[in-house]
Predict the structure.
Amino acid sequence: MTRHAPDWPLRADLDLTGAPATSTDPAGVASGEPPVRVAQPSSKRGPLTGKPAAAHRPPTKAPDRAARQRWSTASDLLRLVHAQPGITRTEACERLGLASGAAAELIERLRRAHLIGERRAKRDAPGRPTTVLTAHPDGPLALVIELSMAGWRIWCGDLDGSVSEVAASSYGNQDPAGFLPGIAKAAATAARGYGNRVRTVAAAVAGTVSGTRLLQFSTRGWDEADLSVLTSRFPSNSAPLLLAGNDAALAGLAEARGGAARGARVALHLLVAVGVGGALIVDGQMVAGAQGAGGEYGHLPLGDPGLQCPCGARGCWDLMVDGRALARHRGDAPPTDPLAYARNLLNRLRPGTDSRDRAAAELTARDLGAGIGGLANAHDPDIITVGGIAPNLRAAAPDAFNEAYLAGLMTFHRRNPPPVLDATYGDEGPVRGALALAFDEITSPASLATWV
């Protein structure tokens, strides 16, 4: 993911460094709520600079079948550009089997529609010059709303994966009913600077999600909430489509599309932060379950049945593999921020350091490896990717992890165990996966037919 610092002027009364705001929140959050930092777009041109696209009106009716068919090949090309930022026109034509004449006509049509841009490719060898296919500076955009354990952030992203943070804040002491309307107002405020270019809003949530409902956010003690509130402050005649997914599952989608699991037919991704979640990805698509809430691997009963999980179950794997487990093995009190606790402990591990730290890391790495072995037996993946603190935990106690992983595999799997690889995108995985989900929708033939 290419991240850009906002290239528009920032309001003088806003502080983007994380310091408390000194004036009224421009996103309209009520007094006493956590301050929101917001970047204000200007008229400067560029893929994320907020130039309104008045020519692109919101759809008034669904496109007919013929219109969708006309956009089928265009959809394939645009999805390829999103999946492989920096791809050249020549490479794209070869991948899609397009003749040069047909490709030139298609790309020109997309350029005129403000759906694709081009820039001269660097010439590394003799031959005909080509161009790199890019996002059009006036093309469609998506907002990604990241609801993490610590707080929320709103990102704006374009076709080739460039993103800018446009607003952020903590939750304070509010529950979803209290903070979601404020996020909705911040999202609508951000989108107004881009005219009608924002076509989809995708939420990456560190909780259990089904459709656009938050079913449970166990680590914060929150129950059900309606996430459709997030688009409630957009004009009713141009409200973008809202999509939502679990953050760990979306990180898995990102790894399968362009990260460490790219090219694998069946990939398993696990993200350890506060607890562990993930996704099974088959042929580049998440296997989400009947209610869309699959991938809650942390709530498999792989742990100590004497431990009560905030989700309501007992013996959850969640409690065995994160900062809570490390603290318990050290004899410390449960940490208020398990993720920060785990990172601090793992970062200070050195030869000759506190033996309690090392013993805690080894026990926790062993529980992580054993559980992954069991999931390999259940899903038979080509490849397994791990994110969050899992790479650090594995690196801190590689022997303990590997022994437990192999011991947990069925005999036939041990002959050729699925490789376990560190995630490519790290903490950016959920945002990148949400952006992929959004552009799956934006670049569908039906959606493209409504753009022009």
User: Anything to note?
Assistant: The chain has 14 helices and 17 strands.
